Fold this sequence. Notes:
A hairpin with a 2-residue loop joins β2 and β3. The protein contains seven helices and four strands, in the order ββββααααααα. The protein is α+β, with helices and mostly antiparallel strands.
Amino acid sequence: MLPGRGRNGRAARPPRILGTRTAWTAVGDGEFYCPGCGGDRNYQRLTGRRRLTLFRVPVLPRGETGPVVECAACRRHFGTDVLDHPTTTRFSAMLRDAVQTVALAVLTAGGTRSRTSLEAAALAVRAAGFEECTEERLDTLARAVAEDTGRVHGEPCGPGLAIELHEALDPLAPHLAAAGRESILLQGARIALADGPYTPAERDTLATVGAALTICSDDVTRLLAAARTPS
């Protein structure tokens, strides 16, 4: 073997004299949605201390780095903003709660809570994940919502009901594509139309739903008209 050459005949790389090394310390853990794995995984939240190395031996501190989030499965590091994305389990729960809240708001606005509207609402809520939901349960919940929010049949969506809608929809909206946000509004529209044309109170409630889902007023109007057209 020629001097300065490796076993494959290529020039041997000189040893690295200077470098940096990071020593990580775990400061927290939990579960998150890993964008690298594409699913829910455990994570560790890490902070690090960087050191200058001489022939790979740490000699001088170079300050702190991080914090970062390390996936326990793929070991990739991500910025801490990755924790803002809900896990799939949490996202499913948020979606279920959102659909049920919209259904109850529309039923409360309708006031009469006819059998057809209750059936449409129960169907939507069951499809969202509350498989044991019944028309009777929704009727009871809608009455409770009306009492808790001071809702009076025929009046516009009051502040109490608007707060309920925003609390359920505001955290969810950033994580939904436009089609997903429109789907929730359309489900509410179909519940309202199950027993006849929109009432002014139902339109006002659905407009509040659209605003909480960050759907512009023109698109809300378009979607409410589209819901009236049989598919």
